[in-house]
């Protein structure tokens, strides 16, 4: 009984502070950029997040246009210029731009590079 109470408290704490999303984002960025010094890179990301929070500046974007295009092209293996909604949703999750609980609705439209850039 005490264990489930502790587990519930831990889960609520992680949810309240969005720790799972933060760890997911940090892991995704680390695997995407593969820096030579991963610890220093993670410290740098966290510092930039802290500065953004303290100054009220919007969440910093760590991907530039070429990174977004490269990611899209990896998913568009056939070179058609589109990806499926499932691929799109998974990419947003991988980048930490949407959570598991977030319900993205498939509007039936294909996802083009322009749409992907706009959303990312």
Number of helices: 6
The ordered H/E elements are: HHHHEHEH
Beta strand %: under 5%
**Alpha-carbon distance between the termini?**
43 Å
Helical amount: 55-70%
Organism: Pongo abelii (Sumatran orangutan)
Pfam family, one: EF_EFCAB10_C
GO molecular function, one term: calcium ion binding
Domain EF-hand: 63-98
Which helices and strands, and how do they pair?
Layout: H1 2-16, H2 19-33, H3 38-55, H4 65-75, E1 82-83, H5 85-94, E2 111-112, H6 113-119
Antiparallel strand pairs: 1-2
Domain EF-hand: 63-98
Protein name: EF-hand domain-containing protein
Organism: Pongo abelii
Describe this structure in words.
With 120 residues, the chain is mostly helical. Helices cover 63% and strands 3% of the residues. It contains 6 helices and 2 strands, in the order ααααβαβα. The protein has helices at residues 2-16, 19-33, 38-55, 65-75, 85-94, 113-119; strands spanning 82-83, 111-112. The chain has a two-stranded antiparallel sheet with strand order 1-2. The termini are far apart. The mean pLDDT is 81.
Kindly list the characteristics that best describe this protein:
single chain; 120 residues; mainly alpha; two-stranded antiparallel sheet; globular
Summarize the structure.
By secondary structure, the chain is mostly helical. The protein contains 6 helices and 2 strands; from the N terminus they run ααααβαβα. It starts with a helix and ends with a helix.
